[in-house]
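A brief tutorial aside. Many learners find it easier to grasp structure tokens once they have seen a single protein encoded end to end. The record that follows does exactly this for Cytokinin hydroxylase. Read the sequence first, then the structure, and try to relate runs of similar tokens to stretches of the chain.
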Amino acid sequence: MERFLMESMRFYPPGVNSVSRVSVTDVDFGHICIPKGMEIHVPVEYIHHSDDFWERPEEFDPDRFLPGSRAKLHSCSYMAFGAGPRSCIGQRLVNITTKIILAKILYKFTIELADPQEQLKCVVKILTMVPDKVLVKLKPRQVSK
Ligand code: HEM
């Protein structure tokens, strides 16, 4: 489930416009200069779908977060919760609560797409990316008591 959640947030990073920094010094990369005081907005969704950082970026593959594969990733290639000392303090809480909520739903229901052909569309609302609409069918499971 951990891998599935990470891959979901790689594909559709909710905090798509949430990672920004201000440069504290002039930085010269040779081909690009960032002056002191400039605000930098990290293109999280672009990075999450870039083949500079990911093999087959448009393929949904939770196994890319298996411990062995994860260790090979660039430290800033996955930024669903930001990066570095100012990354999201709610990350662990989100991971735990999402797993509990999903486990409770999956215990009672199987989930199917209402229309398997339909592509999930997302829209960006100020700082967060949210699904435009998600139509799924929940089928009750036979839970033995
Ligand atoms: C799916 C849910 C969430 C996502 C995707 C998310 C994502 C993010 C991102 C991308 C940042 C910016 C990190 C950076 O600049 O490096 C951030 C910062 C932050 N998040 Fe979250 N977050 C989530 C839920 C939460 C929750 C539940 C809490 C509180 C319980 C929380 C508290 C914070 C705080 C306080 C910061 C600012 C940290 C700092 O500036 O030092 N977040 N979050």
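Self-check: Residues 106 and 141 are 9 Å apart (CA to CA). If you spotted this yourself, you are ready for the next section.
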